[in-house]
Design goal:
The complex is a heterodimer.
Chain A: H1 2-16, E1 24-25, E2 28-30, H2 37-58, E3 66-67, E4 70-72, H3 77-88, H4 100-113, E5 117-118, E6 136-137, H5 143-157, E7 166-172, H6 175-178, H7 181-191, E8 194-200, H8 208-217, E9 221-225, H9 229-240, E10 248-250, H10 257-260, E11 271-274, H11 283-293, H12 308-331, H13 338-346, E12 349-350, H14 352-357, E13 367-368, E14 381-386, E15 391-394, H15 403-421
Parallel strand pairs in A: 1-3, 2-4, 5-6, 7-8, 7-9, 9-10, 10-11
Antiparallel strand pairs in A: 11-14, 12-13, 14-15
Helix pairs in contact in A: 2-11, 2-12, 3-4, 5-7, 12-13
Chain B: H1 13-16, H2 23-39, H3 46-72, H4 80-97, H5 103-122, H6 130-150, E1 163-164, E2 169-170, E3 173-174, H7 182-204, H8 207-217, H9 219-224, H10 229-256, E4 258-259, H11 261-264, H12 267-280, H13 285-309, H14 314-335, H15 339-353
Helix pairs in contact in B: 3-7, 3-8, 3-10, 3-12, 3-13, 4-5, 4-6, 4-10, 5-10, 7-10, 8-10, 12-13, 12-15, 13-14, 13-15
The chains are: A alpha/beta, B mainly alpha.
Chain lengths: ~425, ~350
Amino acid sequence: MTFKRVAAASVAALMVGSPVMADLVFPSLSYRTGPFAAGGIPYADGFADYFTMLNERDGGIGGVAVSVPECETAYNTEKGVECYESTKGMGALAYNPLSTGITYQLIPKATADDIPLYTPGYGRTSAANGNVFSHVFNFPANYWNGASAAINHVLELNGGDLKGKKIVLLHFNGAYGKEPIPTLTKLGEKHGYDLTTIPIDYPGQEQKAQWLQIRREKPDYVLFWGWGVMNQVAIQEAANIRYPMDQFIGVWWSGAEHDVKPAGDKATGYKAMTFHGVGSDYPVFGDLQKYVVDAGKAAGDGSNVGTVIYNRGVYAAMMLAEAAKKAQEIHGVADITSAQMRDGLEQLEITNARMAELGMEGFGPEFKVSCANHGGPGAIAIQQWDAAAGKWSLISDFGASDMEVIQPLIDADSAAYAAENNIEPQCN
Amino acid sequence: MFYREAGDFKTSYRDDNQTFPIRLDRAGYWIALFVAFCVIPFFVNDYWVNSIFAPFFIYAIAALGLNILTGYAGQVSLGTGGFMAVGAYACYKLMVAFPDVSIVFHVLIAGGITAAVGVAFGLPSLRIKGFYLAVATLAAQFFLVWLFNKVAWFYNYSASGQINAPERSVLGVVVTGPNTEAWAKYMICLVFLVVLAWVARNLTRGMTGRKWMGIRDMDIAAEIIGVNPLMAKMSAFAVSSFFVGVAGALFFAVYLGAAEAGESFGITKSFLVLFMIIIGGLGSIFGSFAGAAFMVLMPVILKNLLVGTLGWPTEIAAELEFIIVGGLIVIFLILEPHGLAQLWRLTKEKLRLWPFPH
C-alpha cells in the first residue's frame, strides 16, 4: 500500500513538473530538435543569452532576476500546448513561441489567461490590429510588410513597372507560408504582375517537383517563405537549375548563414529581407561575449553569436526586457505580473537614443507601440549574401511598406476574427 | 486468492456473457467510472486536462476506431490522420454555419460525414487486401490533407489556412474556445469516450463484431457461412471512420482550438494511432486505451522526469525521449507481440490461479 502511494505520488510529481523559482519569467518555447532545429537553436540561444547577460551585468531587470525556462516544442503544436500549460503556472510574463502554428493556437488561450504573446516577424499578421488582438504584439514587422517590401525592392529594380512580370511565391505549405498570399495577390492587382504560388510540404527535404515547375515557368522573381531544412534545399536546388540568385528573395526566416552555406559559392547574390541589423559590430555583442560566452554561461556553444537568427533572438529578448522595464515604470513595482507586462508592451517606445544606450545603435528602427497599432513600423531592408566574404550585407535602407494595401487587409482579417469570437474593440 | 471467480455464480446466460464476469473486475470498472466522473472533475486544472486527459481521451477514441477496422475487421488503414482531418474540418464548417446548434450534434454529424468519406475510401478493400489496401488508404491520407490545404472553402478563406474553433457551449457550459473551464473540457471528452467505448464493446461482441472477425480471420470461410463481405467491410469502415471523425472533431474543437491540415493531421498522426493499437493490442478495447495512454503519457512523463526533475537540457531530453519510447516499443513487442492487452490478460490468468500455478 505504501509502495503504491509512493508510486502514485511520484507519478503525480513527474507529470506536473517542478516550478522554477524566480521573479521575471520569460518561458522560451524553443525547438532544438526536428527539421526546424537549424533555425530554432540559434534563436533560442540568442533569446536566453540576452537575459543571462542582463542578469550578469545589471542584476536582472529593475533589480529583479530573469529566468528563461526552456521547453522543447519541436515546432509541434501539441507539444507547444503542453509547454504553454506547463510553464504558465511559473508566472510567465510573455510568450515568444517562434512558430506561427503555435501562435495561432495560443492567441485565444493567452488572451483568456491575460498573458501577452510577442511574435516579432511571425505569427498572425492581422494581430497588428491591437484593437482586436489585445494580447498579441508583432512589432517591428510582419509578413505582409515583408511581402510588400519584397515587391518594393523588385519595383525599384524594374524602374517602378512590373506589368507582365512573372513572380513565383515558393512557400511552406502551412500557416506561416500561406500568410503572404493575400498581400501578394492584392499587390499583383495593383502592379500588374502575375503571381504563381508553389507550396512545399513539411518538412521540404525534397523539392525537385517545385523547382522543375520554376524551371518551366521561368519566373522573373522567386519569393521564398521557407524555414528549417527546406531553406538549404531550396537554395541548393536554385543553384542546381542555375536560377539567377539575385532574383531569388527570401523572407527573414530564409536568410541565415546556415541556409546559404551548403550551396557554397553558388549562393552568392541570394537576397533576404530583414527587420534588424546584421553582423556583430554592435557593442551589445561585446557584452554578450564578455558576460555570457566567456563566462561559460551561454545557452549554446557560443558559436552562433552574431549570426542572423541569433541576432533575432537577441532583438526579441531586448524588446521584452524593455517592455518589462516600461511596465515596472508604469506600475511602480519591480515584480510585475503578466497583465502589467501587457501594458508595458503596449506603451513601449524604442528611440534611437535608447538603442544607443543598449549598445544596439542602428540595429533596428525607432518606433512606438500604441493601443491600436501592435505591429510597429514594418520597416524592412534587403540583405545579400556574399559567399566569398562569408557574410550578409545590407543593400538597402530600412524602407516602409505599402500600408495602403496592407492596412485594409489587416482590418478585414481582424474584423473577421473579431466577429467569429465576439470581440469588442479595446481602444476608443 | 484475490482475483477469482470461485463463489461468483451465474444463474443466467446474460450474467455469464457480461463484459466483466469477475466480481473484482466489475467493481474496478464501476470504481474507475465513479472516479472519472465524480472525483477527477473537481481536481483537474488546465495542465492536467490539456497535457494529459484531453489528448489521452481523444486518442483513445481514435484508437478504438482504428482498432475496429484493423484489429477486428483486419483491414489495414494508414488514413487515420486524413479521416481525423475530415472530422475536424466538418466540425469547423458546422460550428461556423450553425452557431446555435449544440456542439455535441456538430461532433456527431462530423463523425457521420467522416463515416461516409471512410466508406468511399474503403471501397477498394472489396478487391484488395493487406499491403495493397494500406497503400489505398495512404492515398486517402495524402489526398484529404491536400484537399483541405488546397480548397479555401474548407477554412473559410482565412489568410493562413488555419481553422479556429469559436466558442460553443453544451447546456450553457462553454466547452470550446479559450474560456473553457478545465472540468468542462475534461467532461465532454470523457462522455464521448465512455459512450463510444461502450458502443464499441457491444458492437464487437455482437453479431456485427463476429462478422468482422470472421472476415479478418478468413474471408472466404466467412463468406461461405453467410457473411456478406460487402456489408461487413463497409460497416467496419463506416463505424471506424465515425469514431475517428469524432476524435478529429474533438481534437480540433476541444483540445487544440486551432488546427491546420498538414501539421495536425499529417501522416505522422496516422502512424501514431496505428502504433497505439499495435502496442495496446489489436482487437482489444482495453488495448486501445492502453496504447493511447502509453503513447500520450510516456513522452510527458519522460519530459518531466528528465527536464523537470533532473534538469537536463531540453534538446538532450527530447532526443532521449525518442530513444526511450522507441526502445520501449521494441521491447514490448518482442516480449509480447500481442500488445499490452495480452500482457494484462496473462496477468489476470496468472492471478486467477495464484497461488496454485497448476
